[in-house]
Design brief:
The complex is a heterodimer of chains A (about 300) and B (about 260).
Chain A (H helix, E strand, L loop, with lengths): L14 H10 L2 H23 L37 H36 L3 H14 L3 H12 L3 H28 L2 H8 L4 H37 L11 H9 L7 H30 L4
Helix pairs in contact in A: 1-10, 2-3, 2-10, 3-6, 3-8, 3-10, 4-6, 5-6, 5-8, 6-8, 7-8, 8-9, 8-10, 9-10
Chain B lengths: L4 E12 L8 E12 L4 E6 L5 H9 L6 E6 L2 E2 L5 H5 L2 E4 L13 H12 L4 H14 L16 H13 L5 E5 L7 H18 L2 E5 L3 H7 L2 E6 L2 E7 H6 L4 H15 L1
Parallel strand pairs in B: 3-8, 3-9, 6-7, 7-8
Antiparallel strand pairs in B: 1-2, 1-4, 4-5, 9-10
Classes of the chains: A mainly alpha (about 300), B alpha/beta (about 260).
Chain lengths: ~300, ~260
């Protein structure tokens, strides 16, 4: 059967393709995406490519400078720290820990926050109003402070700090989802879907959620950079991950003791955190404008 | 013969509280009585704030009436039974732009009522969507498009297609022509009249444009402050208006046409 098609040369890109086409327009965003992909690959296959065990100490090679220094060696590409552990392997494992945990936390916080926010947004009256005012007051406190308070109650440790950061990230997701859902359900297209006989759950998933991705991307990337910074800050203050573990914040605080003799031991984890947060923000910004622009052409 | 749609003593009371110390504002609608037969057109005209849109919302079930009954083919419509209602009474919105979801394709917008209310297979649904699109004068390819790719007139046609896709008996339209320019407006009017002839639809529409009302409608309902002050055959109302307000309206229209 021949298909009647007036525009044979035209093809109809899916929303995802549209977004990607828009995203490609910004070179900086694509560069950020390359960096982010690199980090995510490290998260996935880090242990396979790390040359040494990150915890093995080598007393014969303390504070070896990196390969580009005059007295550095090729064996330890990024040099070693005060206990003779290979910095490259520690960095790879550190990126894996910091970024991997942050991604996990943001995912959990997003799921919980969006679910609660959707319930609050679709319902009316005292219940949703109480939730709203309570969360607004929580949102006024910086997440790191909330995390420190929670850690102070639960006790130090990586798992406790993960709980703390996840809990601290949830309120902003709830708040933003609620506000967004409230705005959207007033619009005519939701009324139209309601008149089609859609239930509240159907309304949320099929009418409101497709419009929410832009907001979720913005909030998600913001939360991801906050989570990375909080995880390493808690590690740095030795409230989160503890000493031997190769977490970037912990590495920074250990390197601080020998900062004058071997500046690379703080420069390397520091710049890893910096590039990670920067690439997350650049990609998030690019995605947001891509999502906004695809509605325009 | 029972009327296609009969409205008996329909009332609605809306109380708006404005702060604690101000007196709450009350708006009463009705009681309103009217009936239309299959293939007939009823026009509702009146001032802003006279309750026209509210009446439309009550008819399609977006608001819950305080009293009275709506009978479809002699059967009572219940507010909670939205399935029964939406298979027979469909709404076309004034702002076609806001009534279409920006993030999903027009095809899935039109398909959604089919998904929710019928047991059709996906292929049959797609066939129905294509057929409805060509019915309203668009092309089957338009189902891959998004809202922002169409003009206002085309969006209004999509709104109409979404209403038509369930093969309803009655279409309620809230100022469907208001946002359109004259040529597109007359195209849309003609399209609706053609569909009405072909499908035998009952058509209820709200309009400020007396020219269109006179051209299209068989009956007219005039509203003021929530009350139906005059109702009857359009010819009769335009030639022998009884109520003072209606006389003013018709006079204003006549002077504009004759000038």
């Amino acid at each position: 059967m021949s298909r009647f098609s007036l525009y044979q040369e035209e093809y109809y890109p899916s929303p995802l393709q549209n977004t990607w086409n828009e995203f490609k327009q910004s070179h900086i965003a694509v560069l950020g995406l390359w960096f982010l992909t690199f980090f995510i690959i490290l998260v996935l296959v880090g242990p396979l490519i790390a040359p040494f065990d990150p915890l093995t100490q080598n007393i014969d090679a303390l504070l070896v400078p990196p390969a580009w220094e005059a007295n550095g060696g090729i064996r330890n590409l990024f040099g070693t720290d005060a206990l003779g552990r290979d910095l490259l392997s520690r960095l790879i494992h550190g990126c894996r820990m910091t970024l991997g945990i942050s991604l996990l936390l943001v995912l959990v916080a997003m799921l919980v926050g969006v679910a609660l926010g959707a319930v609050a947004g679709m319902s009316r009256g005292v219940r949703s109003s109480i939730l709203n005012h309570l969360l607004d007051s929580v949102m006024a406190i910086p997440t790191l402070l909330i995390a420190i308070i929670i850690v102070a109650i639960l006790g130090v440790g990586l798992v406790n700090s993960m709980w703390a950061i996840a809990l601290a990230l949830i309120p902003q997701f709830i708040h933003n989802t609620r506000e967004f859902v409230r705005q959207e359900v007033k619009k005519d297209y939701v009324l139209a879907a309601r008149l089609d006989g859609a239930s509240k759950i159907h309304l949320f998933f099929y009418s409101v959620l497709p419009n929410m991705f832009e907001m979720l991307v913005v909030q998600g990337t913001m939360a991801l950079s906050i989570a990375i910074l909080d995880i390493s800050a808690l590690g740095f203050l030795s409230l989160g991950a503890q000493a031997p573990s190769p977490e970037l914040g912990v590495m920074l605080s250990e390197g601080l003791q020998v900062a004058y003799k071997s500046p690379w031991s703080i420069a390397l984890p520091g710049s890893a955190i910096f590039i990670m947060v920067l690439s997350v923000n650049v990609v998030g910004d690019g995605l947001r404008s891509a999502l906004r622009n695809r509605m325009r052409h | 013969m029972t009327a296609l749609l009969a409205v008996e003593d329909l009332t609605f009371t809306d109380v708006k509280t404005q702060g604690w110390f101000k007196r709450p504002e009350k708006f009463n609608l009705g009681p309103i009585n009217f009936s239309i037969n299959a293939g007939e057109t009823l026009a509702i005209i009146g001032d802003n704030g006279s309750g026209k849109s509210l009446l439309a919302k009550l008819l399609v079930g977006a608001e819950k009436p305080s009293g009275g009954t709506i009978l479809l083919n002699g059967q009572k419509l219940h507010y909670n039974n939205i399935k029964q209602r939406c298979l027979n009474i469909r709404m076309v919105f004034q702002h076609s732009n806001e009534s279409l979801n920006p993030s999903i394709t027009l095809g899935s917008i039109i398909e959604e009522p089919l998904k929710l209310n019928t047991d059709l297979e996906p292929e049959a649904r797609e066939e129905k969507v294509k057929q409805t699109l060509s019915q309203v004068g668009l092309m089957p390819e338009h189902r891959f498009f998004y809202r922002h790719m169409l003009s206002d007139g085309q969006r209004q046609r999509i709104g109409l297609a979404r209403a038509l896709v369930l093969d309803p008996q009655i279409i309620v339209a809230d100022e469907p022509f208001a946002a359109l320019d004259p040529s597109v407006r007359s195209q849309t009017v003609n399209l609706i009249m053609k569909l009405q002839r072909e499908l035998g639809l009952g058509f209820i529409f709200i309009s400020h444009n007396l020219g269109i009302v006179r051209h299209v409608s068989d009956r007219t309902l005039i509203m003021q402050d929530g009350m139906a002050i005059e109702t009857g055959k359009t010819d009769v109302i335009f030639n022998w208006p009884k109520n003072e307000y209606t006389q003013k309206l018709v006079n204003a229209y006549q002077t504009m046409v004759n000038a």
